[in-house]
Amino acid sequence: MISNKAKYAFRALLSVAALPEGETITSAEIARRHAIPHKFLEQILLDLKKAGILESRRGKSGGYVMLRPSDTVSFGEILRLFDGPLAPLPCLSRQAYRPCDECESEALCEIRREFGRAYDASRRILDNRTLADALAGAPATPLTGKEERLVG
Amino acid sequence: MISNKAKYAFRALLSVAALPEGETITSAEIARRHAIPHKFLEQILLDLKKAGILESRRGKSGGYVMLRPSDTVSFGEILRLFDGPLAPLPCLSRQAYRPCDECESEALCEIRREFGRAYDASRRILDNRTLADALAGAPATPLTGKEERLVG
DNA sequence: CATTAACTCTACCTAGATAGTAGGGATATT
DNA sequence: AATATCCCTACTATCTAGGTAGAGTTAATG
After folding, report:
1. What PANTHER family does UniProt report for this protein, alphabetically (chains A, B) (predicted)?
2. Where are the strands (E) in A14-127, listed by range?
3. CB-strand contact A61/C, under 7 Å
4. Please, are residues A91 and A98 in contact by the beta-carbon 8 Å criterion?
5. Cβ atoms of A66 and A54 closer than 8 Å
6. Which residue's C-alpha is at the least distance from the C1' of C28?
């Protein structure tokens, strides 16, 4: 299960990404719309700002807008930001690789092989679907198995 | 990431499943082979026995064997047993369904839609690959998208 | 029939994560 | 100057992961 924090982040991002050009939205408004605890949401929005995804305007009539275009922000990136590596095993993570303490041979490890397959399948989707895709309701494009579109 | 407990369970199961017909293996032997804390492993094996997957023989020269054939035990089933629902959102779980507190319409929820796709992809693999498949090193069979083979 | 090697069960412990709450401080608009 | 907004840090309660510990039960074997 993904954390509440990550889920709130997605809700907030989709609200910001759906904004008409030139408009902003306040943390209070996002919190109200989605019944998210306001102070908790503020922390999340701050994280998103520090990550360079959102931009903020302070003071009266301030609020948030996207800094990066919504079609460059993938679900995988956000999930990693809040919940850490997507990989089911440390030995399968590129960003946080660590061998299993007891593993003798990764190449022969059946667990790694099986979970590697499951991980590939879900990673291809999460790293290639963006906020813009989600808002457009676009169906997933058929995958060739060689995507690198948004994978850093 | 999957828990250590689940990972240990997979290692233990693969050791038991790989046993020649008629042989048993002790918890101590499994623990030694994979450098798993012995008492911790005992709890895990007990869970697997209570779940009806392993069978035990007590007393001197006791040990464990498979109760269910290894080609009927899927990775998904074991993972659910130790780490709970595979679904990334409660509203996507069949076994532990719960609506999101704040969700107004599941049908329109972009988060649910996107994670649903990722979940489907990995669930199809985890629920259709068995211990026997893993030991055989068999490549995944092409999936049609309509599998129900081992999904209870 | 005592010994011993195994499984069985229950209780307990600690560090860290999750999901917030709280209270102010900084800043820009009006 | 007032006010609405974002910014930052500290704190807390609860739960979970990952074990440790110890005693009890059972069955083979010499």
Report:
1. HTH-TYPE TRANSCRIPTIONAL REGULATOR ISCR, WINGED HELIX-TURN-HELIX TRANSCRIPTIONAL REGULATOR, RRF2 FAMILY
2. 54-57, 63-66
3. yes
4. yes
5. yes
6. A59
pLDDT in tens, chain A (152 residues): 999 999 999 999 999 999 999 999 999 999 999 999 999 999 999 999 999 999 999 999 999 999 999 999 999 999 999 999 999 999 999 989 999 887 888 999 999 999 999 999 999 999 999 999 999 976 765 555 455 555 44
| CB B59 under 7 Å to nucleic chain D | yes
**3-state SS of chain A: helix, strand, coil percent to 5?**
50, 5, 45
**Closest nucleotide to A58: CA versus each C1':** D6
For residue B55, the surrounding DSSP H or E stretch is: strand B54-57
What is the Cα–Cα distance from A49 to B9, expressed in whole angstroms? 41
Q: For chain A, which domains are there?
A: 4-66 (1.10.10.10), 84-136 (no CATH)
Contacts of A133 in chain B (CB under 8 A): 114
